[in-house]
Amino acid sequence: MADPSTDRRVSYRPAPGTIPDAPGVYKFRDSGGRVIYVGKAKSLRGRLNSYFADVSGLHPRTAQMVTTAASVEWTVVATEVEALQLEYNWIKEFDPRFNVRYRDDKSYPVLAVTLNEEFPRLHVYRGTRRKGVRYFGPYAHAWALRETLDVLLRVFPARTCTRDVFRRQSRIGRPCLLGDIGKCSAPCVGRVTADEHRRIVDDFCEFFAGRTDTMMRRLEKEMHEASAELEFERAARLRDDLGALRRAMEKQAVVLGDGADADVVAFAQDDLEAAVQVFHVRGGRVRGQRGWVVEKAEETGTAGLVDQFLSQFYGDQASSGEPVDGDPGENSPGQNSSGENSAVPREVLVPELPDDAPAIAEWLTVLRGSRVQLRVPQRGDKRALMETVERNAKEAFVQHKLKRAGDLTARSAALQELQDQLGLDTAPLRIECVDISHIQGSDVVASLVVFEDGLPRKAEYRRFAIREAATQGDVASIAEVVRRRFHRMISETAPDGSTQHGSAQHGSAPGIDPETGRPKKFAYPPNLLVVDGAGPQANAAADVLTEMGIGDVAVIGLAKRLEEVWLPAESEPLILPRTSEALYLLQRVRDEAHRFAIAYHRQKRAKRMTTSALDDVPGLGETRKTALIKHFGSLKRLRAASVDEISGVPGVGRRTAEAVVAALSRDKEGNDV
């Protein structure tokens, strides 16, 4: 528990019973009166009381927020929809430092069509939305948008030049290069009238908005008519136009066969950060994609991230008039011809529904001006697209982490910071990490991963199957792994094969295989040994090293929940700053050990589940075991098979089949698998 004499929260905690048990929005302020956090709750009493629990049980960023705050205030509202709106307004007004801001880290390009001009212009654009301009996008890459526009200008030769260029060409009476090569209808010199040019632009907008079938059918009809009238040059030009349109359509493949308008949202996360990916689908085609990585403000799962994202992202979209495909005219930016705000789609697909999903759907409906559905796709094209977006989120999260890990300056800073924070004599150039994996004490395994100079050396990763005598908990398992690893090091560096920790004799190099000339597997000790866990795990590892007479290896434990660094024999953990490169490196080492351990555990568990039931069958070797599992597909199907079906497998006789059936029947009754 926090010491009441030093806990700053005591000075501003509301008196018991004064917080209403009603929905509302609350603000935390610092000593200067600035709002540092805004949140909403169904029950203000329950939510605010949670901030005044033991600080050691809070998320690191939440703990930092409540200890920075000097006061808290709240506003009671009638409905959850009002709470959503008020929370969004306050976040936008005060820009609190501890709130997650779901904003893009860059400006995405859109295609703008200036329908408010006499001769509308097509151009790639970034910036605020203006009335009378139609926007298509956003798109991830400006080059891809320009490439698509260049293809379509062959079919829709609309103006793309700036106002100054347009006026200059009008004065000199000569079109620019695009006019000469047929990619502009040259309204500047009167080759087309204003009405004819606007029809070209309208056709372009219709095609770009996804209504392609009508355009394709019209061009095909005109091509056949021209051919029938022996106008072969015109027919060839129309044929080439059709080819250009098809190439443009291939760049935007149909992902939803029902032509739906939807945003698909997915997340990838760890305890401290989350990656967000959004695919904008309009007319069944992916029209844009956005993605960014944010720090998590509180300990929350996917449902909580969805809640935060929807309220902030679509609030910003609707207020800024930033549609994915907005209509122009007399409407405000972002509104279409029906008066709906097209920045909010008709359907939002998410990986998990938040607790207040009905309220959020109602709020989105108000923002759009028509009904909005919020749901989790379960099957079909929409489920497949959700899986694609999830893969993109995971890949973006991995790339985000690798970008930092690949920075030589950041790695050097991390190693130097570890040396300073842990009081080491030298920077820990070699770091090893141990992690334990099991399910309720069964199939206990361990991993040992190696990082050198801040980068993984996968060739030196090791796996351990924990013996039955040590399966009394993670502490005992950690001790066994450390003992086995360093016992191997001592034996491999002893010239006579003894277990004495000494230097090489008779001129032989310690730790080097005399036959291959390569280092032995466990010959080199780490500068720093990291164990996944808190004080007990760190103490167990340190005690083993002391027993073995090894005193030149530093040991720490990294507690997963709060990312605390535990030193052996210390009663309090070491807290590294959230922005610390050293903490980031430790997290990456620990996560890699966790991944490697889980992979080994799954492999071992799968092997046990598919073979243990067949181990006692006389005359059934590994080859025929594998043949049986491959033939039936799973142990469950094999168990349901008859003697005749099993004996039909090549290499399996009837007597062996009867023995298999008997063994699987006993296994099912004993529930050994």
Topology:
Blueprint: E1 24-29, E2 35-41, H1 44-50, H2 60-68, E3 71-76, H3 80-94, E4 110-113, E5 122-125, E6 134-136, H4 142-152, H5 163-172, H6 177-180, H7 194-208, H8 213-228, H9 232-250, E7 262-269, E8 273-282, E9 285-295, H10 302-320, E10 347-349, H11 357-368, E11 373-375, H12 380-405, H13 408-422, E12 430-439, E13 442-452, E14 455-456, E15 462-465, H14 474-493, E16 528-532, H15 535-547, E17 554-559, E18 564-566, H16 581-611, H17 622-632, H18 635-640, H19 643-647, H20 654-670
Helix pairs in contact: 3-10, 3-11, 8-9, 10-11, 13-16, 14-15
Tell me the β content.
15-25%
Unreliable parts: 326-334, 497-508, 669-673
The H-level CATH homologous superfamily of the largest domain, spelled out, is UvrC, RNAse H endonuclease domain
Estimate the mean pLDDT confidence: 78
Largest sheet: 7 strands, mixed
CATH architecture of the largest domain: 2-Layer Sandwich
Tally of alpha and pi helices:
20
